[in-house]
């Protein structure tokens, strides 16, 4: 079983309508490549994500919003800030770095 | 099905400007004008986008000088899902991001999101366009709608 199988993943951006959707698409590409079946993958606005983040295993956001999520890692949530929100290569590398890919 | 660039041309959602001395706020307004023209958005829709960038910084400017100004889905004053495309001959200055990196753009894809499925499809296609450097260079050099279609024909996206 892949490490991310059954995990809950969240992608956040300012409005929950633009870059978070791009992130979600890029994340899907990586999950497909590694044949991972997450428990949940959704996107939302930072305002909503702030409180929701703690119940997710991995939270992705543009680097601009990394500060907003400070402290969630204490709960065991992995925060992955991205420079380029549509880069599946960057997401793949970041997940490897966090030891979340097999 | 028509690609987003074909739809931009068909719906006349494009604009070409010189851009010299134009502020980013004004550029965002100009990029939405083609959407205003056919009633896709109301005239002051762009102000919500400006407010959002003022609040969160120039996060809508991606690599390769591409800007995707947008607000949330079903924003006030948005009536139809669409993309306002704009090329500026001069770079538009968006200031610096949180790392002090200079952000500027000469390609604009300004979004209006009303229909969730259509918007999702637009975003997926834009992701592919934004990762296609050759296409972006050709689009930045476009000065007519025909140039937009020629750019896409020459540098098609994968998928």
Q: Which terms would index this structure?
A:
heterodimer, A: 102 residues, alpha/beta, Rossmann fold, four-stranded parallel sheet, 3 helices, B: 159 residues, Mannitol-specific EII, Chain A, five-stranded mixed sheet, 6 helices, globular
Structure description:
The complex is a heterodimer of chains A (102) and B (159). The longest helix of chain A is centred in the first third of the chain and has 15 residues, at 19-33. In chain A, strands 2-1-3-4 form a four-stranded parallel beta sheet. Chain A has one domain: 3-Layer(aba) Sandwich (Rossmann fold). Chain A has helices spanning 19-33, 46-52, 88-97; strands at residues 8-13, 40-45, 58-62, 78-82. Chain A contains three helices and four strands; from the N terminus they run E-H-E-H-E-E-H. Chain B is an alpha/beta fold and 159 residues long. Chain B has one domain: 3-Layer(aba) Sandwich (Mannitol-specific EII, Chain A), CATH 3.40.930.10. Chain B contains six helices and five strands, in the order αβααββββααα. In chain B, helix 2 packs antiparallel against helix 3. Chain A binds chain B through residues 13-19, 21-22, 25-26, 45, 62-65, 84-87, and chain B through 52, 55-57, 59-60, 62-63, 68, 70-73, 97-99, 111, 113, 119-120, 123-124, 126-127, 130-131.
